[in-house]
Description:
Strand 8 and strand 9 (135-146) form a beta hairpin. The protein has helices spanning 4-9, 17-24, 36-55, 149-155, 161-179, 190-208, 227-318, 323-334, 356-362, and strands at 56-59, 63-69, 76-82, 85-88, 95-101, 105-109, 121-123, 126-129, 135-146, 213-224. Helix 5 (161-179) crosses helix 6. By secondary structure, the chain is α+β, with helices and mostly antiparallel strands. The strands form 3 sheets. Strands 6, 7, 8, 9 and 10 form a 5-stranded mixed β-sheet that branches.
Amino acid sequence: MESSGNLEENPPKQIHLTSEFMKKVRLPTSKFKIPRTIKILMVLVILAALAYGSFLEYIRPYEYGIKVNKIGFQRGVQKKVYETGLYLVLPFGVQEMHKLPRGLQVLELTNSAQTAAYDTRIERAAHIQTSDGFFVDVDVSIIYRVNDPYKVFTDIGPGRLFEDNGIIPKTEPALKNNLGKLTTEEFFNSPMRVEKALATKQELNEELKEKGILVEHVLVRYFHYSDEIQKNIEEKKLKDQLVFKNKSEARAAIEGAKLTKIEQEGKVLVAVELEKGKAYVTRKQAEKDLYYRKKIAEADLLVKLAEAEQIRLKNEALQGKGAERMVGLKMAEVYKGIDVVILPSDGPSGVNPLDLNNALELFDVRSKGGAQ
């Protein structure tokens, strides 16, 4: 082995790749050159991207913007609320743009996170003591919105502080103040729960309106007692339901008896009305028959009177001037078919066929001394 002195006197030869190797190896050269116009456009695009990232802030449709001036004129929080769009914000800490949510926000008070809605703030269920001394865990959904972003930012703070320092500290006390007035059994009464939920909403709005928060709905979703209390409540409910069932059955029996009585009375009334109807029909039928017979009798009387008048008029006609001629015509009809005998018509033995009295005496029908 060589000593360290020999190494210092004869150092190893160093190989310079840049001098010897590069002389032997030729790298391919590109003849492509970027046009000057494209270079300028690329520089402008890079500058625009830097300007957009550094000087412009985009407020989305579901956001509010609050600008804060750190340096310069009008320092502090600006009262103007920025809507959707692009806005100039000076970089390097001169100005800041803070964003607050614009849409509905949901605060879930529940011990079962899997039952809560997506993208909501979840806190433990409200632990409320009822007016009769029992404790109940209540799952509640508080639906609210940022109504005045400037008040929220100045009174509470930026970001999500409106949850931690705004809605959350006020919610459970308001629920206890209103739902705590219910008894254990009244929690099962839906109208009473809704009434107390509305009272909670009103109380929250009175406390939070000065901070720019508006509560839209307070929804009581579920409530849970301890197992022992729940068992006692269920047993009592079953007993109450049994009592209610018995009362309902008794009331149903009474109503059934009333219904039977009404049905019987109705049947009697129907029978009476039917008999009245039959009597009415019989009476009207008798009146119709009487009227018919009366009219038939009147018609017969008129016919008889007409026939009598006909006979009277005929007798009067026979007693008139034309009666002898009519008798002659009738006698002529009688003498039809009789052999003709020529007899004298004048003198004592003359025969005048038109002389009815003479004919009667001739045939001994009436003697000459009889009545004329």
